[in-house]
Amino acid sequence: MHQDTNGRRRRRKHSPAYKAELVQQCLSSGASLAAIALDHGLNANLLRRWVIEHERLGLHTLDDAPTDPVPVPAPAGALPEFIALGPPTSTSLLMPASAHRHERAPTADATVRVELSATRMNITLHWPSSNSQALAHVLRELMA
């Protein structure tokens, strides 16, 4: 267990080769994952995550485990941890994302139904779709 001058734990960093070795032990030996983690001073949940990453993403293999830590690129098709979004447009506030894909002109008799629930109160609004700007204004006032 690593400790800094304040007596608090520091996050440990394990090399890819070390991770690969432990994952291989979990997959090949008859010992339980918890026993292997305990023998190496690790939390079993951390070792389990490494095994899952190996099984699902192909990480932590002995073949490609470098001796020095190197950042691992995200697999193809994986989403980044953070996606920057622009400011919302007025249309995106009024319609769910699924509606944008199949936009069509509203018919004259189309209505928007909005249900609001709060403690001891339910409100249902039926609003003509031709006047969506007024509906947006009413909803902003109710939510303020």
Gist of the model:
The protein has 144 residues and is α+β, with helices and mostly antiparallel strands.
What is the N-to-C succession of helices and strands?
Answer: HHHHHEEH
Report the C-alpha radius of gyration, rounded.
Answer: 27 Å
Q: How many separate helices?
A: 6
Beta-strand content bin: 5-15%
Descriptive overview:
The protein is of the alpha+beta class. It has helices at 16-28, 33-39, 44-57, 90-94, 97-101, 132-143, and strands at 111-118, 121-128. A two-stranded antiparallel ribbon has the order 1-2. The protein is elongated, with a radius of gyration of 27 Å. 6% of the residues are buried.
Give the key terms:
alpha+beta; two-stranded antiparallel ribbon
Write the topology of this structure:
Blueprint lengths: L15 H13 L4 H7 L4 H14 L32 H5 L2 H5 L9 E8 L2 E8 L3 H12 L1
Antiparallel strand pairs: 1-2
